[in-house]
């Protein structure tokens, strides 16, 4: 029994060591910019997460004009039976636009901040939409069942993931075989887009990171004012 306990302890220690080595080889750490966390992934510094205190910015009156969210929703070609996960759903800005279209499906509103989920819950109590489900995610997982979603939407959130590789692997598991990721990020290639550099991404960088997780770019729909609308599928 004593030897068995020692063996189990050794295995656990080796497992923890291997995980730590994988994290240290996948990510690098150094002093970074004011808007970053000092952690790099494939040459990109990860940005600070926008806290729930910035919720009013997500609901700003100028958002439709600046981002043309109506066109984004059309780009997604949402079908009535679609099951869609909005990762980093925030205050639910896109959730409430998608839910009526996917009327026979479901919208998972996933966020790591309870305050954001509470805001969606409160708003939905007023609207009474019955195909919205709140999901508390973590830094490494979207906490969705395997092969459960047709489409994943990430709007200006991926660049803030503390563990981007692990999160995309979690999303990969949640996607159905022909599922799609709609990765929406402010265009780093366009200096006129009035967003801090660390909160933008280039298509080249996005493709590099998504390829590392087993995805390929299906298309980049270039009809939004400030953002890339990149569609990724499993390779």
Task: Describe the 3D structure.
Pfam families: Methyltransf_31. This is Class I SAM-dependent methyltransferase. Residues 82-216 form the Methyltransferase domain. Residues 1-20 form the signal peptide. InterPro entries: Methyltranfer_dom, SAM-dependent_MTases_sf. It is a single chain. The protein is an alpha/beta fold. The chain has one domain (53-234): Vaccinia Virus protein VP39 (Rossmann fold, 3-Layer(aba) Sandwich). 34% of the residues lie in helices and 28% in strands. It contains eight helices and eleven strands. The protein has helices at residues 2-26, 55-58, 63-67, 69-75, 95-98, 114-127, 164-174, 203-212, and strands spanning 27-29, 36-41, 44-47, 83-87, 106-111, 132-136, 149-155, 175-187, 200-201, 215-220, 227-234. Strands 4, 5, 6, 7, 8, 9, 10 and 11 form an eight-stranded mixed sheet that branches. A hairpin with a 6-residue loop joins strand 10 and strand 11 (227-234). The longest helix is centred in the N-terminal third of the chain and has 25 residues, at 2-26. The protein is globular and about 45 Å long.
